[in-house]
C-alpha cells in the first residue's frame, strides 16, 4: 500500500522472514511444530517430546478401556469388544467368553485394515482351535512330571559295542529295568556283587595307579546303571563308600595289584554282610518284640525286612506256645501288586493272612494293633521315602490311633530334605495300569484315546509326623534323630 510508513513495512518484512533453525544435536532430532512453524514457535527439546508421547499413550490407553472404543489401541494392541454391556452401571456386561467371541467375530469381519494408530489386528490361522480344558491340564501334567526319570528297556546292543561295560553290568541293568530285580536291598546287593566281579576281572594298565584308574573304569558302568533304573539313596551311599575305599588304597603304602583287588573284594563282602544282612537280622530281633499274641499287624506292598520280622515273630511265638499266633493284613495296590508275593511267603509259613486293596484299608484299621512299613530311604528331616501309597496308609493309621513303625537300615539314610514326592521320584511303567484283569479284551490303548496321560509314580513321601518310631540296627529311634545318626555313621563308614 502506498500509505504505509517505512517502520510498518520493515516490521511486515521481518515477520515474513523465518528465523534460522538451530542445528540438531546428536541426542535429539528436531520435529516440525504442530502449528506450522511460525516466527514465535521454538523447537521442542527431547525431554518435551518424551513427555508428549507419554501423555498421548496414557490418553490412548484410557480411551481403549471405555466400552465401544476402538479395538486397536496404541501399538496395535486389541481391546475386548463390549457391545452387549451398557455404559451405565444398571446393566450387567457380557461374560468373558461372549466378549472374546465377539472380539474374534469383529476382528474377522473387519479384516486386516489399519486402525487409528496404523497397526492392523492380528489374524489367527483358519485351522486354529481354542485348547480345551482337558488338553490344557494334560499339557500342564506333562510339564509337571517331565523332569522325572522313566523306566525304559536299555539298549544292550549299543552297550556291548562300546566295550566299556562289563557283561555282568549289562545283565544287571536288564534285570533292574525289567522289574525282575526290585527292591532297594535287592538292587543294592546286586549292584555291589556285580562291582565285586568287575574288580576281580579288572587289570590295571601299564604306567597307571590302581586307586586312580579304577574309579575312571567304573564311572561309565555306574552311569549306565543309572539310565536303566535310578540307584536310590541306598545305592548312592554304597557307591560313595566304594569310592572312598578305593581312595584309601593310596594311603596304605605299596601293595601289589592282586592285594589291592583282594582288599576291595573283601571290603565289599563285609559291607553287604554288616550293613544289609546283619542289619536286617537285628531289625527283625527288635521289631518282633512289638508283636504280641492275638495282634493284628498291617503291612503294605512288599518289604524284605518286614517279611523277615513277621516270619521270625511267628516262629518264636510258635516255639514258645504252639497255640499262639497273630494275624497279618497285607494291603496292596495296582499296578505292581507286590503284596501278592508277600502274601504267598507269609501264608506258606502258616501265618493267618488277609489280603485287601488300598481303598478298603479304612475298614480294617479299626481292628489293627500295629502297622509295619518298609522304606527305600529315610531323609534328613525324618520323611519316609517308600512305595507309592505308604503315605495314605500312615495317614489313616494315625487317624485310627494305630502306631506306625518303619523298618529302615541306616545305609538308606539320606542327607537331603524332601518336601514332596514330585521333585525327586520315578515314573513307572503304565502297561499294567491300563490292563483290566477281569476283561483283557477291554484294555485301554492310549493311542486311541485323546487327552489321556497315564501316570504312575513309583514312590511317595510320608511326613515324619505320621511315623511313631523307626526301627534300625541301632535300635528304635524317632524320625528326628536321622541327622544324629548320619553324624555318627560318617565317622565309622
From TrEMBL:
Compartment(s): Cytoplasm, Cytosol
Coiled coil, from the record: none
Predominant location category: cytoplasm
Biased composition (Polar residues): 1-11
Domain of life, per lineage: Eukaryota
Biased composition (Low complexity): 12-28, 101-120
The keyword Protein biosynthesis appears for this protein: yes
The entry's keywords: Cytoplasm, Initiation factor, Protein biosynthesis
Any one cellular-component term (Gene Ontology): cytosol
Compositionally skewed regions (Basic and acidic residues) per UniProt: 41-55
Keyword Transport in annotation: no
GO molecular function: translation initiation factor activity
One Pfam family here: IF-2B
InterPro entries recorded: IF-2B-related, IF_2B-like_C, NagB/RpiA_transferase-like
Region ranges (Disordered): 1-131
Entry's transmembrane regions: none
Subunit structure: Component of the translation initiation factor 2B (eIF2B) complex which is a heterodecamer of two sets of five different subunits: alpha, beta, gamma, delta and epsilon. Subunits alpha, beta and delta comprise a regulatory subcomplex and subunits epsilon and gamma comprise a catalytic subcomplex. Within the complex, the hexameric regulatory complex resides at the center, with the two heterodimeric catalytic subcomplexes bound on opposite sides.
Family: Belongs to the eIF-2B alpha/beta/delta subunits family.
Name of the featured protein: Translation initiation factor eIF2B subunit delta
Species assigned in the record: Kwoniella dendrophila CBS 6074
Phylogenetic lineage: Eukaryota, Fungi, Dikarya, Basidiomycota, Agaricomycotina
Amino acid at each position: 500500500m502506498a500509505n504505509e510508513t517505512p517502520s510498518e513495512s520493515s516490521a511486515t518484512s521481518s515477520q515474513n522472514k523465518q528465523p534460522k533453525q538451530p542445528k540438531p544435536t546428536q541426542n535429539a532430532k528436531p520435529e516440525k511444530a504442530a502449528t506450522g512453524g511460525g516466527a514465535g514457535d521454538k523447537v521442542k527439546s527431547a525431554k518435551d517430546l518424551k513427555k508428549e508421547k507419554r501423555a498421548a499413550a496414557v490418553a490412548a490407553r484410557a480411551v481403549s478401556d471405555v466400552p465401544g472404543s476402538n479395538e486397536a489401541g496404541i501399538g496395535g494392541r486389541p481391546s475386548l469388544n463390549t457391545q452387549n454391556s451398557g455404559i451405565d452401571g444398571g446393566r450387567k456386561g457380557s461374560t468373558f467368553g461372549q466378549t472374546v467371541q465377539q472380539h474374534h467375530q469383529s476382528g474377522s469381519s473387519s479384516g486386516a485394515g489399519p486402525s487409528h494408530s496404523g497397526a492392523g489386528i492380528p489374524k489367527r490361522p483358519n485351522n486354529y482351535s481354542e485348547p480345551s480344558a482337558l488338553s490344557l491340564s494334560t499339557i500342564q501334567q506333562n510339564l509337571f512330571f517331565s523332569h522325572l526319570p522313566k523306566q525304559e528297556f536299555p539298549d544292550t546292543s549299543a552297550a556291548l559295542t562300546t566295550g566299556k561295560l562289563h557283561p555282568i553290568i549289562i545283565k544287571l541293568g536288564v534285570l533292574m529295568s525289567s522289574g525282575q530285580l526290585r527292591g532297594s536291598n535287592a538292587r543294592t546287593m546286586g549292584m555291589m556283587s556285580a562291582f565285586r566281579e568287575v574288580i576281580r576281572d579288572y587289570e590295571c594298565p601299564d604306567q597307571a595307579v590302581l586307586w586312580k584308574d579304577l574309579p575312571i573304569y567304573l564311572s561309565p558302568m555306574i552311569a549306565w546303571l543309572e539310565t536303566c533304573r535310578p540307584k536310590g539313596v541306598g545305592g548312592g551311599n554304597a557307591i560313595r563308600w566304594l569310592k572312598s575305599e578305593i581312595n584309601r588304597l593310596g594311603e596304605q603304602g605299596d601293595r601289589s595289584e592282586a592285594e589291592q583287588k583282594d582288599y576291595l573284594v573283601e571290603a565289599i563282602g563285609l559291607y553287604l554282610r554288616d550293613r544289609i544282612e546283619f542289619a536286617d537280622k537285628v531289625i527283625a530281633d527288635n521289631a518282633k518284640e512289638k508283636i504280641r499274641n492275638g495282634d493284628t499287624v498291617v503291612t503294605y506292598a512288599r518289604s524284605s525286612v518286614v517279611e523277615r520280622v513277621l516270619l521270625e515273630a511267628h516262629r518264636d511265638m510258635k516255639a514258645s506256645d504252639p497255640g499262639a499266633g497273630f494275624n497279618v493284613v497285607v494291603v496292596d495296590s495296582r499296578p505292581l501288586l507286590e503284596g501278592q508275593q508277600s502274601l504267598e511267603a507269609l501264608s506258606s509259613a502258616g501265618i493267618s493272612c488277609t489280603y485287601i486293596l488300598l481303598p478298603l484299608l479304612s475298614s480294617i484299621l479299626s481292628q489293627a494293633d500295629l502297622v509295619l512299613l518298609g522304606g527305600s530311604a529315610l531323609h534328613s528331616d525324618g520323611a519316609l521315602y517308600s512305595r507309592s501309597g505308604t503315605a495314605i496308609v500312615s495317614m489313616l493309621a494315625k487317624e485310627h490311633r494305630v502306631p506306625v513303625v518303619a523298618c529302615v537300615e541306616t545305609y538308606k539314610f539320606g542327607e537331603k530334605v524332601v518336601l514332596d514326592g514330585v521333585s525327586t521320584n520315578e515314573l513307572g511303567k503304565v502297561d499294567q495300569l491300563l490292563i483290566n484283569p477281569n476283561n483283557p479284551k477291554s484294555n485301554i490303548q492310549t493311542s486311541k484315546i485323546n487327552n489321556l496321560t497315564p501316570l504312575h509314580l513309583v514312590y511317595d513321601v510320608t511326613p515324619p509326623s505320621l511315623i511313631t518310631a523307626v526301627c534300625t540296627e541301632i535300635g528304635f529311634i524317632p524320625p528326628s534323630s536321622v541327622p544324629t545318626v548320619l553324624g555318627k555313621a560318617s565317622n565309622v563308614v
